[in-house]
């Protein structure tokens, strides 16, 4: 698995993909937080990072599939997948190696946003007037959400050799689980059914983590979604239908 992980991560570092994805993400979030009049922190007047954690998932929803769309699709189209699966590594090692490489790139994209936290921390009145536990919880939720999006992107890449189709499928799945189920719940009267549908969606658990309270149930939810998608990817890889 280490060899697969190293190979995949190095391939990102030696291509423009990693730098383009990180640059686009930081540019979009930077514009939303500091420039656009509807969302920028300076006009909003509150020392928080709500813009990053409320709008960031929608940016990630497109950028993560751009990272993962080639991971299996490109190898299937070029035929190099045949060489990969004949090496002395298990299907799980292949899946996890690729998954962790993509996830690490997502985490790297988040690291520079710590500067946004420091800036808001210093701009607070008085300095430091920011809900730090809430920020930590939001970062935890952001990373777990990114992990789930990454697993869905990897699955989408495994079921087709067309990178564009893999991208579209991954975006659709991410939107459906993050926003779609919550919107669907709103169509029903308040009750058990509504609550159940809401809890099946990511936004319910993500918003819970954003409050600064890291509930084990929310963590288990994201890990379960990621694990299920990785298991499906492994089954696709194991079927050898290419």
Quick structural overview:
The chain has 242 residues and is an all-alpha fold.
Describe this entry's structure for a reader:
This protein is mainly alpha-helical. It has one domain (2-239). Helices cover 78% and strands 0% of the residues. It contains 13 helices and no strands. It has helices spanning 2-13, 16-34, 41-44, 50-68, 73-78, 80-85, 91-110, 114-123, 132-158, 163-185, 192-200, 202-210, 216-239. Helix 4 runs antiparallel to helix 10 (163-185), helix 7 packs across helix 13 (216-239) and helix 12 crosses helix 13. The longest helix is centred in the middle third of the chain and has 27 residues, at 132-158. The protein is globular, with a radius of gyration of 19 Å. The chain starts with a helix and ends with a helix.
Strand count: 0
| End-to-end CA span | 22 Å
Number of domains: 1
Strand coverage percent: under 5%
Helix percent band: over 70%
Radius of gyration: 19 Å
What general outline do the C-alpha atoms trace? globular
Total of helices: 13
Order of helices and strands: HHHHHHHHHHHHH
| Uncertain residue ranges | none
Which labels suit this protein?
242 residues, mainly alpha, 13 helices, 78% helix, 0% strand
Topology of helices and strands:
Blueprint: H1 2-13, H2 16-34, H3 41-44, H4 50-68, H5 73-78, H6 80-85, H7 91-110, H8 114-123, H9 132-158, H10 163-185, H11 192-200, H12 202-210, H13 216-239
């Amino acid at each position: 698995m280490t060899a697969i992980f190293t190979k995949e991560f190095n391939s990102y570092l030696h291509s423009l993909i990693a730098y383009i994805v990180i640059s686009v993400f930081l540019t979009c979030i930077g514009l939303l937080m500091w420039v656009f009049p509807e969302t920028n922190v300076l006009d909003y007047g509150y020392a928080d990072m709500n813009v990053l954690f409320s709008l960031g998932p929608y940016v990630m929803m497109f950028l993560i599939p751009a990272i993962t769309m080639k991971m299996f699709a490109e190898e299937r189209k070029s035929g190099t997948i045949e060489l990969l699966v004949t090496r002395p590594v298990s299907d799980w090692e292949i899946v996890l190696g690729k998954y962790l490489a993509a996830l690490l790139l997502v985490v790297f994209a988040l690291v520079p946003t710590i500067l946004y936290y420091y800036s808001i921390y210093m701009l607070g009145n008085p300095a430091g007037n920011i809900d730090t536990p809430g920020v930590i919880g939001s970062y935890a939720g952001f990373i777990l959400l990114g992990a789930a999006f990454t697993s869905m992107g990897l699955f989408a890449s495994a079921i087709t050799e067309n990178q564009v189709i893999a991208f579209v499928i991954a975006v659709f799945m991410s939107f459906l689980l993050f926003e779609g189920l919550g919107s669907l719940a709103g169509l029903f009267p308040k009750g058990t059914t509504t609550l159940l549908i809401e809890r099946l969606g990511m936004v319910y658990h993500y918003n819970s983590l954003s409050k600064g309270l890291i509930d084990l149930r929310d963590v288990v939810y994201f890990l379960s979604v990621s694990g299920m998608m990785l298991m499906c990817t492994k089954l696709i890889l194991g079927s050898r239908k290419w």
